[in-house]
Amino acid sequence: MTAFDEERLARLIRALPPAPEAWVRAAQELPLAKAGLDEIVARAEADAHFRARLLADLESALEAEGYERDPAVIEALKVRLKSK
Amino acid sequence: MAQTLSDSELVARCRSGDQQAWAELVDRFSRYVYAISVQAFRLSDADAEDVFQEVFARAYEHLDGLRDDAAVRPWLAQLTRRLCIDRLRATSRERPTTDEDLELAGSEETLTMLEDALTVHEALAATPEHCREILDRFFARDESYRTIGEALDLPAGTIASRISRCLGRLREFLEGRTQPDPPSSSR
What we know:
The complex is a heterodimer of chains A (84) and B (187). By secondary structure, chain A is mainly alpha-helical. Chain A has helices at 6-14, 21-28, 30-46, 48-56, 58-64, 71-83. Chain A is elongated. The N and C termini of chain A lie far apart (42 Å). Chain B is built from nine helices and no strands. Chain B is globular and about 55 Å long.
């Protein structure tokens, strides 16, 4: 970035509005959710039927088992299950 | 929004399991990740939310694999771009999209502009709190003079001049003419 004029600075500040608060909070809470994630992953490793259900329809399988449908947890779980 | 830790210090703390540091990392890069998906790739809100969560989930999961802690910013940008393209490809299978549309998505020009925008926001975080707050509220949050005046207890007539002074201060800081205030512990 080389030249600065105030009009350009204003445009660049405007270019980064805040992300929706709920999205940010969910991502920030990932470490807290990790304990729950570890439990689900460990169960999936030990129980082939549970793992198959998770892979077939993650959200429904979690809901059926009484886990909270937290978007950040679901995305983290997708990453973990894919890497196993 | 004040930044007290460098990117590499922040990553090191995250890696050691510091939850506050992780929250800070998400806060520091959330606007950038969000802007790449909605401005450069024009994803819908639903797709942008999925990409946003997946970027941070992958980042959290693979932070140990980051070779250079100071490179967390380009790493997150690259991860976001890759996930946006995956999302567009998946959408194009459901609702055919022309090759031209996919080529236009994520234009280099917009991505470069967003990098510059993040640099400016980082500089903004080093300006005095009253400047940081008023510039962010007016430009990034698109708040009216009235809303800002009520929130900051300022007469509406002084807001324009304060914005102008603060933009000047930010410009001076970016041009290296003044030093930032000492780091504060508040955001």
